[in-house]
Specification:
By secondary structure, the chain is of the alpha/beta class. Helix content is about 35%, strand content about 15%.
């Protein structure tokens, strides 16, 4: 199922750090040497979910909350727990998550600790996503793709990418 998505705007990319600030600790960047050259590594493995992906989920849910403070969201996932992370996404909003029936037992068990409605559907991500999109239409719930959404993309962009989009300072008096 192919959905078109616009690239994130400069505004979305610039807003992402403030959406993370209250929920995530800054992660260090370390320098490694690879074949005698410095390589900068952002240690997103220190995030509560062990991944940078929580940043995209946070940005998308926050943008949805700004548009509709009482609205629910729905997504699909093959097992990543970022959409139900206890700290960043614990709000009064209802969150629905679809995953394939064959998702990792450990991840499904972990999701049971969060305030979400978890429905396992289908045997693949594509089936779970199609079901989530159908339910979103039927229930008038906002569907957030875990990867094909401009707020998710902006939220996952590293700080270095954001600096590329910064506008030059004006020298006007």
């Amino acid at each position: 199922m192919i959905r078109q998505v616009l690239p994130p705007s400069v505004e979305q990319i610039e807003a992402a750090p403030s959406r993370h600030a209250d929920h995530l600790v800054p992660t260090p960047t370390i320098t490694l040497s690879l074949r005698g050259r410095p390589v900068f590594v952002k240690m997103e493995s220190f995030q509560p979910t062990g991944s940078f992906k929580v940043r995209g989920a946070l940005a998308a849910v926050d943008a949805s909350r700004r548009d509709d403070p009482n609205g629910a969201v729905i997504t699909a996932s093959a097992g990543i727990t970022d959409w139900a992370s206890p700290t960043p996404l614990r709000t009064r909003r209802s969150r629905h998550r679809r995953s394939p029936k064959n998702a990792s037992v450990a991840k499904v068990k972990k999701l049971g600790n969060y305030m979400i409605e978890l429905i396992q559907f289908g045997s693949s991500f594509d089936e779970a996503q199609a079901h989530a999109m159908t339910l979103a239409d039927e229930r008038s719930i906002r569907f957030i793709s875990p990867f094909n959404n401009s707020d998710v993309i902006a939220g996952q962009s590293p700080r270095s990418m954001r600096s590329c989009f910064r506008r030059p300072k004006s020298n006007t008096s």
